[in-house]
Amino acid sequence: MKRKKPDGARAASTRPGSDFRQATQSLARLGEESVAALLCTAADVTLVLDAAGVITDIAFGDEALAAELGEHWLGQRWIDTVTEDSQAKVQALLAPPLGGAMRWRQVNQSRPDGSTMAISYASRAVGGTDGVPLRWFAFGRDQRVTIALQQRLVEAQLSVERDYARFRQAELRYRQLFQLAGEAVLVVDAANGRVLEANPAAATMLGMPADKLVGQTFPLGLTPRSARPVATLLATARRSGRAAPVAAELADSRAGVQVSATLLHQDQAHLLLVRLARADGPGQAMAGGDAALLLQLAQGAPDGLVVTDLDGVVQAANAEFVRLCQMAGEEQLRGQSLERWLGRTDVDLGVLVSNLRQRGAVKLFATTLRGEFGASTEVEISAVTVTRSEPVLLGFTVRDVGRRLQPEAAATQALPRSVNQLTELVGRVPMKDIVGETTDLIEKRCIEAALELTRDNRASAAEILGLSRQSLYVKLRRYGLGDLGPGGEK
Predict the structure, then answer these.
(1) Contact at 8 Å (CB) between 290 and 176?
(2) How far apart are alpha carbons 181 and 197 in whole angstroms?
(3) What whole-number distance in Å separates Cα of residue 141 and Cα of residue 118?
(4) Is the pTM of this model over 0.85?
(5) Per the CATH hierarchy, to which homologous superfamily does domain 177-288 belong?
(6) What architecture does CATH give domain 300-400?
(7) Do 461 and 446 contact (CB within 8 A), yes or no?
(8) Does residue 193 carry a pLDDT above 80?
(9) What is the pLDDT of residues 405-462, one digit of tens each?
(10) Where are the domains of the chain?
(11) 3-state secondary structure of 7
(12) Which of 89, 78, 81 is nearest to 51 (CA)?
């Protein structure tokens, strides 16, 4: 025989799910202390207010928050403890009818030091007669972490948009250079040898429209006896990344050309940059009109461009680089060492030239450009060695990055102990130990910054820091930086 459910239980099963199903049983015989503990656990801050909205009691769910806010609100009207723009929200929180559903509103709560804190509140009226509540309970949640995450999300989105715009502008510049270059250039898929891109100069040299060249297998447009050495050139470039130029003949005019190839990496694909230059002279590959257009583009480029010899002596510069150096004209730069304007220290140019001689190219080298009248500009430098010229030259692109919105690097670059944390050690740790720890942290950070600035060139890093190389190696071993064996360098 089935037992009948009590009337109260049957009624509870039909109520909405927003309330307890069996409140009389779940919350029965709970004392004041138990209810207070529950209210403190349910919210970061809990306010008890009378019918006039005066705060009669306050509780915090976190001791740190209690120490930060204090209890100076007691005895004040809640509306007087918030900022002016939040007073209407407090009125709305105290306006719902008795027993109405809670609504969350973000309120800017005043702190004892005069600043504000964002707290999300919901209110509930309890007891009372004739529609006038006996008291109000306001439950608050600290929103600082949420606001900080939202701010970081917005900054990350803005950074992504800036990076995307910068990449699009760079792509547009290099696309214009690719199209205007007088030298015939093909981009070939290293896996199957098919042409992916061809500039107008290549279309003119090979006697075929650029859109017809795309999809064809290279070598094409050359005599049969030229196909084998060019195929060997491409195979060598695929294996080693670079190969010596080979001579070939065009099929239609029998004109001699020099074919060279360089391996490029793009995502997971391997590409070959194939260049064809007429063998009758290095200056004949570029028509006079195209050369003038390319020179005009370089002079009007938004980034600084400068060409030097292997000793860093300026040979030519565009208008933007002249402006960054605060000079009147290009003639004042010619014959001067680039070291006069470039670098935080005298070794920056030496580091750049050393890397160029070893690797042939340098990307995004961060340094400073010093103007003639004392202005200092944070710049990024990319450089390349022009080996086809006689004598060999160095080309530098200088980009002003001083106006970029710098990401918050404090989280990653901050010292392990703040000043407050160090001062808290006073009385527990001898002062010489505190000073020694701080000195070690700063010394380690300076060494890391010098190594990063010089691209792990330890001789230059030692010169920047004003140390001998032996002293630098001792400190590297002491702080566990680099990969040094017991004998010195890795």
Answers:
(1) no
(2) 14
(3) 9
(4) no
(5) PAS domain (3.30.450.20)
(6) 2-Layer Sandwich (3.30)
(7) no
(8) yes
(9) 454 444 444 445 555 666 666 655 677 777 777 787 888 888 888 888 777 888 888 8
(10) 30-148, 177-288, 300-400, 413-479
(11) helix
(12) 78
